[in-house]
# Entry
Amino acid sequence: MKILHQVLSPVLICVVLAACSASDSPTDPGGTPADARTIKANPSFANDITEIFMRRGCAGSNCHGNGAGGLTISTSGSANHERLVNVASPMSGEVYVIPNDAQNSYLVKKLENRQGSGNGSRMPVGGSALDNVDLTNIKNWINAGAQNN
# Structure
């Protein structure tokens, strides 16, 4: 019996650890391993920012995939860029993304819950707030000129 316990204990530990994978992390609900995502000084809109939108469900039918709040987000990076940069929200009148000014961009205000009363909820609505990696990459992209890169 002791030999059976010595064999099964390590197996059980491995099974439990495997069940607690990075995809279950409350700060990364999309399943991307935390160590695979890094803060970038000049993130790519197509590769980094659009990936955040997709992973967090922004383009889903229950969100901006359906044009919620007057903004449509899709899987197309170039279309998303065109809908965000220097475009005023039809709901608040504020510009979603002001190149080189993340602090005053409505997108960042909504992500940080600084949108002011009467301008809806923090995004993503009903989901956890963006973690530091995602939020910083969005801010860095905006502050680097909000390029369509």
About this structure: Confidence is low (pLDDT under 50) at residues 1-30. DSSP finds five helices and no strands in the chain.
